[in-house]
Amino acid sequence: MITQLRTRLASNCTRLIRSPTALLSGVVLAAISAGCGLSTSGESRLSAKSSAIAKDLPCEDFHVDDGTEEGHSSHLGCTGLYSSWWQRVIAPDVREFAPGYTLWSDGADKGRWIFIPPGSQIDTGGKSGSGTMDTWTFPVGTKAWKQFSLGPRLVETRLLWKRSAGWFRATYVWSDDELSAIEYTESTGLLVEGVDPEGPGYEIPPANACVQCHGGGPDTLLGFEAIGLAVKEARGLTLDELVRQELLTANPDGAYLIPGDADAQEALGWLHSNCGTACHNDRRLPGPTQLHMILKTSALAAVEDTDTWTTAVSQLSRYRPSPFCRESSWFRIAPGDPACSTIPYRTGVRDEYPGPYFNQMPPLLSHRVNPEAVETLRRWIATLPAQPPPELGPFTE
Q1: Alpha-carbon gap, residue 313 to 316, rounded angstroms
Q2: N or C: which end of the chain has fewer CB within 10 A?
């Protein structure tokens, strides 16, 4: 009963605080929050360890003692993203960013923010660093949020937080009225209505699924890296801005632009962000016969220098949709012949939910094809000059 009353009170207070008739002043907001039993001090066990937390939520009530020094919050509003939850004000020490090439998320729109602890730098190399420009290491206290929406509807927000004991991962699910976003603690994905009510659903992942992709990164965080932040399409806290703010231990030694014509750049950038950074790289799939599609800052002089070219073009594919393709072999990329190339084929199919996902790529959390990406891949492959047949030998997907 007490819980029900408290929930009802919070809901009423929420409607008052988020009244569309006026933007409430700090004094009025504090008075309403106090009357509703909400804290405006922002004091929390989290505040000393990370970015500022929302001052208009009782964040102590949402604190979870998970056995670590910091613990975490079960409410998104107490993770440091917002300085005011009810008015949705992003905290001043949190920076928005968008990489130039992004992960396909079944048509969802995304917002991205990062918090880098004051006085710290991202280890990108240098005399005292172990990182490199391709393998960034983030300081303890770093937080990154990615928020997903389908049209006007907020669906989920994911948090990656580098705590003293390692990375914490959480998914926060927005309520239908968008008044709360609470940690999703189930062990399986949650399927909700997708961008098209008549089409495939959209899957919210459990936190334990994050490592399946983020485990392929040099330091967990994906999408915040040199090449994605260097291209002209990047926005917000770009590579140039990181240099200007002296947030890197070593600065770039070049422009890091993706080579080739427009289709080649788009294809290589899409494969990098959707396949290479998480899975198809030498950290996750070591070995000379593996398929690598990550772009490296030292291999951007020409398309032919990229890992995608050297490990995919004219390379036989172990995965085959059928025994033969027009009485020929299947290739990862068959120059001039996208119909016999397994990379665009697997990008353009989706297995039935809930799996198993043997055919589609990426294999996780996607139930809707990105037709624009498939068309770009096919168009680029169609322009590639034919190559001599490879020598037969061991190969793997």
Answers
A1: 9
A2: N
CB 90 within 8 A of CB 83: yes
Alpha-carbon distances, residue 95 vs 92, 169, 208, 322, 373 (angstroms): 8, 19, 26, 48, 28
96 φ, ψ (degrees, to nearest 5): -85, 150
Nearest to 329 by CA among 256, 257, 390: 390
Q: Quick check: 136 and 218 in contact, CB under 8 A?
A: yes
pLDDT digits (tens, 9 = 90+) for 80-116: 999 999 999 999 999 999 999 999 999 999 999 999 9
**Cα Rg of the chain, angstroms:** 23
Identify residue 43 by its one-letter amino acid code.
Answer: E
Q: How far apart are CA 268 and CA 377, in angstroms?
A: 9
Q: What percent of the chain has pLDDT over 70?
A: 84
Cβ contact 390:334 at 8 Å: no
Closest to 220 in 3D by CA, of 139, 291, 147, 119? 139
Spatial neighbors of 55 by CB under 8 A, at least 6 apart, are 39, 40, 41, 42, 83, 84
Residue 262: CB atoms within 10 Å: 10
* C-alpha dihedral sign at 317, 347, 184, 17: positive
Q: Report the distance separating Cα 161 and Cα 170, nearest Å.
A: 9
- Give me the half-sphere count of Cα atoms (radius 13 Å) on the Cβ side of residue 124: 21
Residues 6+ apart with CB under 8 A from 123: 129, 130, 131, 136, 137, 138, 139, 249
> What does the longest C-alpha to C-alpha distance in the chain come to?
77
What are the tokens at 93? Answer: 């020490």
Helix (H) or strand (E) holding 266, with range, is helix 262-271
Query: 64 has which bridge partners?
Result: 72
Q: Considering only CA atoms, which of 274, 272, 280 is closest in space to residue 256?
A: 272
Phi-psi region of 80 (alpha: psi -120 to 50; beta: other; left: phi over 0): left
* 29 vs 124: CA distance, rounded Å: 43
Task: Quote the Cα angle for 118-53-47, to 5°.
Answer: 60
Q: Distance between CA 44 and CA 32 in Å, rounded?
A: 20
pLDDT category of residue 129 using cuts at 50, 70 and 90: confident
